[in-house]
Amino acid sequence: MPEDAPVDPAEVGEQDAPPVAEKPYKVIFEANKCIGAGKCAEVSGNWELDLSTGIAAPNAYFIDEADLEHNIEAAAVCPAKKDRGVIHVIDRETGEELAPDPEGDGTVSVDW
Ligand code: SF4
User: How far does Cα 108 stand from its chain's mean position?
Assistant: First the structure.
């Protein structure tokens, strides 16, 4: 892909990814925009705030149905980027953003 081509969210992180049937959802995390508020870690076991860096990180980027709800919750409560959030939960099949989805139409709200 040429360097200036628009980013296709459906492709992000898909190298070495588990099969979609196993892990239908993935997380895209804008770590450089995390403000270390730690809200994600309060609502989701997938998120931890690293006190040495002051930035959160997910344990897993690819998730299944069982882990969907609390990751959606983490995405929804993240206050970074003026409340738009920096945790993005993506449906790998459709490429749509399930949360935080500030546009309300599944558009991926990552600042690429
Ligand atoms: S809630 Fe958002 S800003 Fe706060 S630590 Fe988690 S990812 Fe970072």
Answer: 10
